[in-house]
């Protein structure tokens, strides 16, 4: 430890943010305690042996998850400082997508370390600055220990996706979900791309079957089912797909008005007119060669009537209605069909082409698949199945995390070991670095280094191991030069974690460190809270 000048009797720190006894003000303490309480709440769900949380929402819906961001999002957090940690996990979710629990646990640990430093009389600004310097240094050490990865190396991408899935409820299905996540993302990237837009990956959720039935669709999968009540087709080869935003039902005037008909012949005329109008629409659609029709959902009037469905079925056109407005872009991108808002603009060049459009049924879940698209856009669909809603929702969240992990490797093409190895490695190097510093900064660096040990400690605790014995042995192994030694949770021992295929993207850990240090610095700098009317 660096020989920091001892605070002698003449070195008492007088500052408005401290009271007479050199303790932090009530507000800062209250903020830190609130934030630590949030961190403790999610701490038990860290790692492959972490516990799951059951959340009941205000509407009575039940959510079972161990995804940090989801847990905090549903928590009714009232304290403003504690809400900062909810925002922190959201930021990590956007930046990296995984490590949302770790980042909150890390912030809680750094706050505990900061509290000790403040009670020793070190100024909050000094602590905040030192922590941010230490985080920058830690990121340098992590980059130095990382291994570069090539996107063509599928095996490494699979290892990272599996590691992410192993800490989820659906961990036993990681052999099914990991390849799907890797294939989905690699389909969208080129060798030069530096990011992937996950909105180009569409996840269709269907209750029925098990998670094993989850599959990647080459083309497009639709949540809506084909309309068969007028005997329309449910399978169409050599499909020409039309995407329309107008309605196939009798027109309605803009104003609310009533027509009183007292003559039956007039009534007959109105019905004939409606029939003729619909028949004309259907014939004009058929004329373009369209044989699969997707209709946008309409709130003003029915998108289709029984009569128009009957005509379309006669003309052998497959109809799928209730396409949501926000799906239009994705469908257009996937199939090449351009949305048309008026029948006059509906021409052959607006159609999309596919080898096959068919409605399939797996274990009671119906889904429409469009395959063999002629000139596909860079999009991909995943049909996610599960036995009930709870499992299905969690399966989707886990798949999203796995997709994010693969996306992280596209953003920053480097992997590091998991299982608490990088934290201990960085902690050891930061402690050594602290010896070269002087004064208060040395204390702060030392405290930051010790705070990083919360990750391996929590991993060991959640797995039912003795945290003190495990972390001590881990430190010892690292001191002997085994920089990839980590906690093997399954066997309850310390081993080379790379041989166990436990790897994570560099971006997940670096962004967790940087974001946690920033949030802690922000909380430390607040010395008062004002309520406005």
From TrEMBL:
Keyword Nucleotide-binding tagged: yes
Pfam families cross-referenced by the UniProt entry: Cpn60_TCP1
Domain of life: Eukaryota
Segments of this protein annotated with the region Disordered: 1-25
GO MF annotation list: ATP binding; ATP hydrolysis activity; ATP-dependent protein folding chaperone; unfolded protein binding
Keyword presence, Cytoplasm: yes
Main location: cytoplasm
GO cellular component: chaperonin-containing T-complex
Bias (Low complexity) ranges: 1-17
Residues forming coiled coils: none
Keywords: ATP-binding, Chaperone, Cytoplasm, Nucleotide-binding
Subcellular location, record wording: Cytoplasm
Quaternary structure and interacting proteins, as annotated: Heterooligomeric complex of about 850 to 900 kDa that forms two stacked rings, 12 to 16 nm in diameter.
Family: Belongs to the TCP-1 chaperonin family.
Identification of the protein by name: T-complex protein 1 subunit delta
Naturally occurring in which organism (per UniProt): Kwoniella newhampshirensis
């Amino acid at each position: 430890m660096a020989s920091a000048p001892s605070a002698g009797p003449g070195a008492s720190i007088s500052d408005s943010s401290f009271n007479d006894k050199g303790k932090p003000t009530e507000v800062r303490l209250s903020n830190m305690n609130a934030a630590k309480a949030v961190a403790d709440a999610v701490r038990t769900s860290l790692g492959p042996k972490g516990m799951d949380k059951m959340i009941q929402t205000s509407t009575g819906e039940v959510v079972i998850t161990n995804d940090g961001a989801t847990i905090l999002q549903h928590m009714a957090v009232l304290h403003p400082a504690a809400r900062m940690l909810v925002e922190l996990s959201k930021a990590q979710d956007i930046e990296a997508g995984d490590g949302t629990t770790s980042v909150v646990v890390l912030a809680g640990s750094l706050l505990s370390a900061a509290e000790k430093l403040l009670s020793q009389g070190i100024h909050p600004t000094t602590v905040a600055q030192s922590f941010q310097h230490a985080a920058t240094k830690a990121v340098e050490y992590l980059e130095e220990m990382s291994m570069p990865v090539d996107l063509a190396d599928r095996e490494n991408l699979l290892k990272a996706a599996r590691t992410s899935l192993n800490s989820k409820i659906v961990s036993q299905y990681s052999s099914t979900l990991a390849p799907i996540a890797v294939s989905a993302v690699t389909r969208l990237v080129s060798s030069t791309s530096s990011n992937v837009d996950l909105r180009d990956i569409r996840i269709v959720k269907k209750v029925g079957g098990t998670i094993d039935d989850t599959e990647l669709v080459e083309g497009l999968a639709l949540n809506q089912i084909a309309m068969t009540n007028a005997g329309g087709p449910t399978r169409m080869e050599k499909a020409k797909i039309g995407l329309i935003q107008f309605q196939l039902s009798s027109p309605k005037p803009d104003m609310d008005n009533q027509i009183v008909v007292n003559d039956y012949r007039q009534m007959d005329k109105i019905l004939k007119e409606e029939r003729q109008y619909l028949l004309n629409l259907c014939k004009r659609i058929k004329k373009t060669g369209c044989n699969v029709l997707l209709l946008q959902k309409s709130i003003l009037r029915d998108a289709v009537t029984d009569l128009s469905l009957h005509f379309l079925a006669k003309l052998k056109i497959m109809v799928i209605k209730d396409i949501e407005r926000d799906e239009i872009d994705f469908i257009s991108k996937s199939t090449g069909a351009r949305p048309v808002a008026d029948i006059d603009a509906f021409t052959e060049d607006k159609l999309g082409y596919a080898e096959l459009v068919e409605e399939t049924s797996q274990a009671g879940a119906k889904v429409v698949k469009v395959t063999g698209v002629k000139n596909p856009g860079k999009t991909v669909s995943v049909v996610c199945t599960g036995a009930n809603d709870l499992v299905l929702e969690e399966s989707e969240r886990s798949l999203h995390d796995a997709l994010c992990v693969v996306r992280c490797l596209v953003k920053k093409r480097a992997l590091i070991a998991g299982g608490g190895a990088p934290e201990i490695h960085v902690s050891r190097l930061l402690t050594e670095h602290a010896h070269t510093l002087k004064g208060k900064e040395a204390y702060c660096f030392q405290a930051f280094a010790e705070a990083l040990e919360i990750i391996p400690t929590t991993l060991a605790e959640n797995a039912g191991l003795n945290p003190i014995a495990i972390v001590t042995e881990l430190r010892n192994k690292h001191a002997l030069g085994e920089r990839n030694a980590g906690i093997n949770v399954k066997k309850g021992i310390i081993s080379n974690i790379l041989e166990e295929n436990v790897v994570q993207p560099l971006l997940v850990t670096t962004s967790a460190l940087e974001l946690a240090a920033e949030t802690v610095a922000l909380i430390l700098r607040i010395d008062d809270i004002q309520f406005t009317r």
